[in-house]
Amino acid sequence: MSVLVTGANGFIGAAVVARLVERGVSDVRSLVRAGSDRRRLERMSGHRVVLGSLSSVDDAARALDDAETVIHLAAGLRGSVPELVLDTVVTTKHLLEAARRRQRPPRFVLVSSFSVYGVADQARDSVVDENTPLEARPAERDPYAFAKRRQEELVWSYADRIETVVMRPGAVHGPGRPALSTRIGLEIGPLFFFLGGDNLVPLSYVDNCADAIVHAALHPRSGGQAYNVHDDDLPTARQLLRCARPRHAVPIPYALLLAGSRLIDAYHRHSQGQLPAVLTPYKTASLYKPMRYANTKLKALGWRQLVPTDEALRRTFDLIAK
After folding, report:
1. Is residue 300 assigned to a domain?
2. Which residues contact 43 (CB under 8 A, 6 or more apart)?
3. Paired sense of beta strands 225-229 and 164-169, if any
4. Which of 83, 167, 209, 221 has the fewest CB atoms lying closer than 10 Å?
5. Residue at 73 is within a domain
6. How far, in Å, are 47, 251, 283 from residue 3 at the CA level?
7. Which helix (H) or strand (E) holds 28?
């Protein structure tokens, strides 16, 4: 079997490449941009690095070559809406067009995100699973959520011609990426504003996330489906705060946060944008409303967590402390 991994030089991508090699996939290709730092990938045996860009359909077609499966992780992580749409949506369009032109299109595995879910309008403590409605108002979230929602919408539009699998990881952590995501709080100057309270956090340790992606990518009956990717025994934001021990943590209760976001939003509108709408009631509800999470669909596919949650947290926070 031949598998192409886009975004192979990234945090999750490199772990996916390693897992494919461990699973004995005979032909693993890591697509990276020319000029990028490839030392981490080049230290790994059992795969070959392919230099290229998804900036055009022709480049994408050369990268695909005769691959039977594509695991698509390449996407923009930060920037303005136009920048992220270009780096996430347009590049995905090029890859899909290249795949569609093939006589036998490869299986297309998109690594999406939990940010595509529209949880702001859901009741408190609702279960977020694959049946949860997708974000209907992505422009009111943030540029990353907007781009990932549009990317997934695009991929599903090709599903009648290309076998599609969509993976939706939660907050991915591990060595090099702390578990204190924006779901826990915001660091502004010397202060860490703790906003997560006792909310469960849909964490996924990077090795577990990569294993789940590879498991679904290689499973013969995963096509046409989306899967939540997160670990078992999820910690609360407060437990993660205790693990991280930031120096100056300022707890903000959800009710106070919601009231503050209404004031910020109101002044943003009144001042015609002089104060950025860093938080709005919609953003606050999307990130900080208490919810529960389910990965039962992925487990029904036979996936089991590789690294226990306690051990995963120990690895992440011990390495941060060092």
Report:
1. yes
2. none
3. parallel
4. 221
5. yes
6. 10, 46, 37
7. strand 27-32
Cα 191–193–198 angle (5° rounding)? 145
Q: Is residue 161 part of a domain?
A: yes
- In this structure, what CATH number is given to the domain that contains residue 33? 3.40.50.720
The helix/strand/coil state of 152 is helix
Domain extent for 61: 2-177+202-233+292-311
pLDDT tens digits, 231-285: 999 999 999 999 888 778 899 999 999 998 898 888 778 787 777 777 889 999 9
Does the pTM surpass 0.70? The reply is yes
Q: What are the φ and ψ backbone dihedral angles of 275, each rounded to 5 degrees?
A: -100, 120
Distances (CA, A) of 142 to 29, 145, 222, 298: 32, 5, 30, 27
Q: Which residues contact 291 (CB under 8 A, 6 or more apart)?
A: 119, 122, 124, 125, 126, 127, 128, 199, 200
Residue among 150, 148, 155, 198 nearest 170 (CA): 148
3-class SS at 269?
Answer: helix
Number of domains present in the structure of the chain: 1
Does residue 248 lie in a domain region?
no
